[in-house]
């Protein structure tokens, strides 16, 4: 048996974030699964093409699965690094993988970070251990959200946060999804919050973090919260920079391999 794990991400253009988050995750997997070939695949065509122009090649998921079959790999786990089982996971992973099942003895798909009810409590522990929040501030976590349909994961995460009475508020960057800016601001104002730590609920940092979360433009959450009278301290690092948070994906892979 020759085994491989394909760490499947949307991708990251920023070299530093890619190295500190996605490459670091791959190294964690190599240490945890030394018997397996660990490779990365990016599902974003735009990011792959942009990196290719800079001389950096990253396989698509399709190319990775074709190449591994040619290298006589027999057992493959496709482990997504997405936060939620949203559109990218469904269309770029779940619709792709079955097309290559006949090339392997076993081809499995792992879960994104927030996929089951038990994930919310466990992942909250990882989040709280990864981000230090001063006692006089509250934490605002910004996920991506979905541009085409509502993603319920963020509201479910907020419900778990509220059940545990934690000073954390969850929003999404996509203006068409919820919880949106007005909903988060209303929560903060209801609690008379004066200072917030603004952090990405994203594995990597990039344009969304630099522009939409922490930018100086009128549309950024930082600017809008400051205009509402709050003191804002942005965090620019993706959660993939935390070894504690990266462990979530190792546990997902263990579970997928153990249940197969």
UniProtKB/TrEMBL annotation:
Coiled coil ranges = none
Gene3D superfamilies named among the record's database cross-references = 3.40.50.1400
Q: Name one GO molecular function term.
A: sirohydrochlorin cobaltochelatase activity
What the entry lists under InterPro entries is as follows: Anaerobic_Co-chelatase
This protein's record includes keyword Metal-binding? yes
Name the Pfam families for this protein: CbiK
Residues in the signal sequence: none
What is the name listed in the Swiss-Prot or TrEMBL entry for this protein?
A: Sirohydrochlorin cobaltochelatase
Upper lineage is: Bacteria, Bacillati, Bacillota, Negativicutes, Selenomonadales
